[in-house]
């Protein structure tokens, strides 16, 4: 068994959609990035790639490559799934935490879990997503951005 850890952060800005776990969430601000800036999926991708010793998302999906401009992070997650499969790995579980002061995310988490599990071809009970605040502290607490942490375990099928 292998363990991976991922972390990502994006700045909140006007005139961008807020997309987390492949779900567009109604909010006055969205996350800035080259792709759709889905901080949750980016953290999960880095955890999976790290567990398989395959580098990080910047290595596979550089932010200076125009083919990734505005792309759905679910499409990138699907590519990570194929990379893992090609190396003979399967996913045991994923546990992730979104750090954001606003908006309240609990109503959207079941759909995020569905999107991620469906994309990776795993049972929903292998994907856990939580959301927390920082009680007004730091860049997330004052609403300047959002962060996400993820851990995963994978196993070799070879």
Give the SSE map.
Blueprint: E1 2-13, E2 18-20, E3 23-25, E4 30-31, H1 39-51, H2 57-60, H3 73-86, E5 89-99, H4 109-120, E6 127-132, H5 138-141, E7 145-156
Parallel strand pairs: 5-6
Antiparallel strand pairs: 1-4, 1-7, 2-3, 5-7
Helix pairs in contact: 1-3, 3-4
List keywords for this structure.
158 residues; 60s Ribosomal Protein L30, Chain: A; two-stranded antiparallel sheet; 30% helix
Summarize the model shown.
The chain has 158 residues and is α+β, with helices and mostly antiparallel strands.
Q: Overview of this structure, please?
A:
This protein is 30% helix and 31% strand. It contains 5 helices and 7 strands, in the order E-E-E-E-H-H-H-E-H-E-H-E. A hairpin with a 2-residue loop joins strand 2 and strand 3. It is globular, with a radius of gyration of 15 Å. The model has no long low-confidence stretch (mean pLDDT 97). The chain has 158 residues and is an alpha+beta fold. The strands form 2 sheets. A 5-stranded mixed β-sheet has the order 4-1-7-5-6. The protein has one domain: 2-Layer Sandwich (60s Ribosomal Protein L30, Chain: A), CATH 3.30.1330.50.
């Amino acid at each position: 068994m292998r363990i991976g850890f991922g972390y990502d952060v994006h700045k909140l800005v006007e005139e961008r959609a807020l997309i987390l776990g492949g779900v567009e969430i109604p909010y006055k601000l969205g996350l800035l990035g080259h792709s759709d800036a889905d901080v949750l999926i980016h953290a999960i991708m880095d955890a999976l790639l790290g567990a398989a010793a395959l580098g990080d998302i910047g290595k596979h999906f550089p932010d200076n490559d125009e083919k990734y401009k505005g792309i759905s992070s679910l499409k990138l997650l699907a590519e990570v799934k194929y990379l893992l499969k090609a190396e003979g790995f399967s996913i045991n579980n994923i546990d992730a935490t979104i750090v954001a002061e606003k908006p309240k995310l609990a109503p959207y988490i079941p759909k995020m879990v569905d999107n991620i599990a469906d994309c990776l071809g795993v049972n929903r009970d292998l994907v856990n997503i939580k959301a927390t605040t920082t009680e007004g502290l730091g860049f997330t607490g004052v609403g300047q951005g959002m962060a996400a942490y993820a851990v995963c375990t994978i196993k070799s099928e070879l």
